Amino acid sequence: MEKTKKLKEYTYHFIGGGWNTEWSYTKAQAKKQAISKGYNSEIDLDSFHISSEAETKSLLSLFY
To answer: pTM for this structure?
Structure first.
């Protein structure tokens, strides 16, 4: 991996509800990491996107 690349936080959603994040260099890598955790049949693969600070705050507020 090039040292100039930075990790990004990718948010994704599950079919039927819920969400999670993965830290990776690319969207493809984030998908691979999520699938490797055994979520593959439940993940909406089209929902992966780079997380914004506002979105992360909003999603985390669901836990408070």
So the answer is: 0.83
